[in-house]
Each structure stands twice: as structure tokens, then as C-alpha cells.
């Protein structure tokens, strides 16, 4: 059969560059989905960070008297320096956000099952390294915001056991002076952490080539078509990578970096220290009244236990079932974790420096956990017998079922208002317990009503499919 010119060029290119014997294994057809490429997008974000970071290193000076001024010089004097700094900042945010998304996608897909247990552990270590990038890089501009937030994070290390805390504090912050802290963070950010992440990435890629991508629960390995890397997968990867990079550059152009004031002891005394958003949920836990003073050991111990439990998940969850519909315990726990992190982050953003009374912490966090658990239980107890799928045509359901959609807005608005009232009332003194209980009851009822309507919409979809 005569090949068209495009195909002949592809075959010539593959032959001349040795791509006929590609070292990368073919990709299953089910992985041609952006959700399967969250880890790859994180690697792209890391590449953007390396490129922009190297360009900034030409001008940046890591000393306490020049760190801020050299950053200002990059933003205001270097051609397109403001764009360079902003892309580096948003690239860091994207890298951290993608890490969280990649973690929870893997969690709900049960990718940690045999034989990929160690891939999960390596991935958790990579996630910890990414968080280290966020911590160390945040300090380098030497603003009052970044220095104060970093001091809060370093202060948490002092509450670790005496055998660990001082050693980690010295490794992270050096002798304790501002100059030593900045130098140590700079070295960690541009040398130690990149070397560690690249080593872990190489190890994970090696295991990935050995085991391949974890298949969806409803897809059989034998029935899945495999697609060669060149040119189809390369093109697909280039396309989603280009879209991802375009989003970062467009966001950077529309919302350029706004550098806070330079760090001084006087400026810091007038600033309420808060960590960045990716650590804010943990800081909010430490602000609970019972965790003040010696109680912080229990808070840090609880957060550490959750992290260790996630890292050891492959050895705790030994069942063979991978479909989240048939794993109610682990699915519900995952949903509760997501809801709690979001709630604590938003709550922490709107209550800087405030000590959280125990009653508020119990009502808000306990209410969120109970609400998510009840809705999850209700869904699992429903009579749906088929795995839940989310094809694109499901987006048309609200328009095909206008009556249910219109009614759905009533509990949605009522629940949103009551949730806002509940959070607002619990962050002000004195607390009105009667109004808080009413808001909670209405919020809980709204959740149940929306869950029932969502079930009806799902059943409508099954009948229309």
C-alpha cells in the first residue's frame, strides 16, 4: 500500500533516529486521558522551574542584604524579568497542586496495589520533596511575608522529640541566624532537593517501565489496545504539555507578581505570620486551643501519623478490589481527607493569627467529617448496581432534566449560606450555639437532599444511556 508523504516522513524519522526500537514501552489506550498524565505534568512544571530558576540565578544574590534588592532588580530592570519571576512562582504553585491531585487520583484508583507498592512509596517521597521545594523557595526573595512564614514552619521543628528536632533544625536552618538560614535554604533549593527529586524520578520511571500504568478497574489488560510512543503518544504529551504551559504563561501575564515589603524585624512585628496556602491547613490544626503549648506534640503526631499511613497504604490495604464504588471505607476516608484539607485551608485564610476554641474545631471539623461520611454512606447504600462513570455526555444531564436542576439550586444555595454563616459565627466571639445548631441542621439536610437529587440524575442517565 502506498503511504502518504506524512507517514513516509514519520517512518524516515523513526528509522534515522532509532525510534523503531523505542526504550519506552507502548502506552495502553486507556491512559490517553489527562488524569493519567498528572505526574507527567508535574515533571513539566519541574522543568519550567529549573529553566526559570537558572535564568534568575544570573541576577539573584543569596545574602540577607541583597536577596530582596536583587529580586526587585529582576522584576523591574531585567527585560521580562517580572514575567520570569511570576512564571516561576505560578510554576511552583502548579507543581504543588498537581502533586496533591496526582496523590488523590492514585488513591481513589488504588494504583498502589501489587506489584506497584514501592512505586507508591517512592511517589510519596517525591511529594514530600516537592513540598520541600515550596518551603525553601518561598524564603529566597526575603520578604516580610516569606521570612515570617518560614520562621513559623521552622518553629514547628522545635516541638519534635529532642533526638530529632535539633538535628533537623540545624540541617534546615543552620546556626539560626538569618544569613545562615537563607544560605541553607538556597543550597537545599537549588542543589539538594533537585538532586533528590531527579534520583527518585529516575527510580520511579524505571519501575514504571517494568510494571506499566495501573489499569482502570473496569478495563482488562488483555483487551486494552497499546499505542506506540512515536508519534502518537509524543504528540499527545506535547499537546497537553503545551496547554499546561500556556495556562501558566497566560495567568502570569494577567496576574503578575506583587512582591511584598522587604523583611526587617520591625516590619515582621507588625505582620501576622501565616504559611503559604499549601501548609495553611496544617497550621490551622496547630492553632486549635488544645494544641497550644505542649499539646502541639499531639497535633504534629496526628499529622505525621496520617502521612505515614498514606505512605504505607499499600501494606495496609491488602484487598484486591480497586473500584472505589466497592471500597466504601477507603473511598469515604479519602473524601473526608479532601474535605478537611479544603475546610482548614479556607478557614485558616480567613482567621489569621486567631486561636481556635476547641468547641469551634469540634463543630467545624467534626461536622465536615460527619457530613461527608453520611453523604458517602447514603450513596453507597443506594441501589445503583453499575460502576459510576462520568462520560462527557453526562454534562448535558442538568439541561435535559431542568426540573431537578432547578430544585437542586434550592438546597445548594441554602447549604452554601448556612455553611458561610456557620464558619462566620464560629470565628467570632461570642458564639451563638443556637444559631450554629440551626445552620448545621439546615446544612446537613441540604447535603442529604442534594445527594438524593444527584442519585435521581444518575438514574436518569442510566435510563437515557
Write up this protein.
This protein has two domains: 7-272, Cytochrome Bc1 Complex, Chain C (Up-down Bundle); 327-465, no CATH class. It is mostly helical and 465 residues long. Mean pLDDT is 83; it is low at 384-392. The two termini are 40 Å apart. The chain is globular and about 75 Å long. The protein contains 18 helices and two strands. Strands 1-2 form a two-stranded antiparallel sheet.
Q: What's the overall geometry?
A: globular
H/E element order: HEHHHHHHHEHHHHHHHHHH
Could you give the order of strands across the largest sheet? 1-2
CATH top level label of the largest domain: Mainly Alpha
CATH fold call of the largest domain: Cytochrome Bc1 Complex, Chain C
Provide the residue-averaged pLDDT. Answer: 83
First CA to last CA: what distance? Answer: 40 Å
User: What percent strand?
Assistant: under 5%
Count of strand segments: 2
Overall helicity: 55-70%
Radius of gyration: 25 Å
The helix count comes to: 18
The structural class is mainly alpha
* Low-confidence residue ranges: 384-392
Supply the CATH architecture of the largest domain. Up-down Bundle
Instruction: Give the CATH H-level superfamily of the largest domain.
Output: Cytochrome Bc1 Complex, Chain C
The largest β sheet comes out as: 2 strands, antiparallel
How many domains? The number is: 2
